[in-house]
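User: Please predict the structure of the protein below. I'd like the answer in structure-token form so I can feed it into my own downstream comparison script.

Assistant: Understood. Taking the following sequence of 240 residues as input:
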Amino acid sequence: MSDQPPPHPLTETELSARLRGLAAQGAAPATGAQARSRAQRRRRSQRVVLSTTVLAAAALAAVASGALGSDTEAAAPPAASVSHTPTPVPSPAHVQPVTIDLDAHTLTIKGRRFPISGVQDNCPIGERQVTVTAKYPTLTMPPDKYSRLTKYVDVRQWTVTFTDRHHHERLLMWALDPSAGLNSIGNNAGPGSIALAPQDGKWVYDAIKPGARVEIKGRQAASADPDSVCYDRHPVTGDH
């Protein structure tokens, strides 16, 4: 037990005096330190209220956004149902078609058909499809044993060449010399290449392009005489 005596009860007069003193102290103006302390307490209270309000608004927005997002996702079509227009693929470069028919003795290009002098049975071209390599206004053929003896220079006009399966550039077609006559047209006379009439040969020369695909139709002998006989089959150098 405490040795201190119990507090002395206040009389009614003392209690009234103390209450009046407290009332007077509260009515007195606060000091600078007291005013700053009260202002800080008010600001802290305001910040607490503001933070609580912001958090409540954010929570409400998140709930609303989640609800709206669920509805939007449910309404959106699945990704697999979205169609895309494919990018068009460029078409391949146009290849000029040319047809040589050895049975009909014709050459067809750009919708026009020309009579030709075909190849001899013993000197077939030896190809079913070739690509035009080059063309020359004039082409001096390589000399053979006969031209070496006679000193004859074989010059062809309006010539078109191709590259064969052995990678040799060879004569494909040319225009007959007007002075030589046209008796070979419609016959198999060429020793390894075809020939056209002078005007037809010039027209075909102007119309055909390097890279043109030439289809060779008709019968060709399976065997051939050597190039010493089929001298149009000699590789050419392209000199002109």
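That's the full token string. Strands lie at 97-101, 106-109, 112-119, 129-140, 155-163, 169-175, 188-190, 194-196, 213-217.
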